[in-house]
Design goal:
Layout lengths: L1 H20 L6 H12 L11 H12 L5 H14 L10
Helix pairs in contact: 1-3, 2-4, 3-4
Length: 91
């Protein structure tokens, strides 16, 4: 499983590098998919991400056009790093 995760991370990094090198921005639809996965039906799974995957997701958000989904993604990542009581935060 770890090997497949690292392969995915490497492919995501290559994908992001290609977009960066071409001077392109990713569309908000990419972030919408990521946020849906991270929210996992109301259960923020960010605290279970490996440091490498966490970094790739931040890179992805930074290379995406400005959008509310990007802000939501960064919020989910930030909340997972804070030692706050686990409760569901809704907007």
């Amino acid at each position: 499983m770890l090997c497949r995760a690292q392969t995915l991370i490497n492919k995501l990094r290559e994908f992001l590098k290609d977009f960066r090198d071409a001077g392109k921005e990713l569309g908000a639809d990419y972030i919408s998919l990521v946020v849906a996965c991270l929210e996992n039906d109301g259960d923020n799974i960010c605290s279970r991400l490996s440091p490498d995957m966490f970094c790739v997701i931040v890179e992805l958000v930074l290379q995406t056009e400005a959008c509310l989904e990007g802000e939501r993604c960064l919020f989910l990542l930030a909340v997972s790093t804070l030692p706050l009581p686990r409760h569901r935060i809704e907007f």
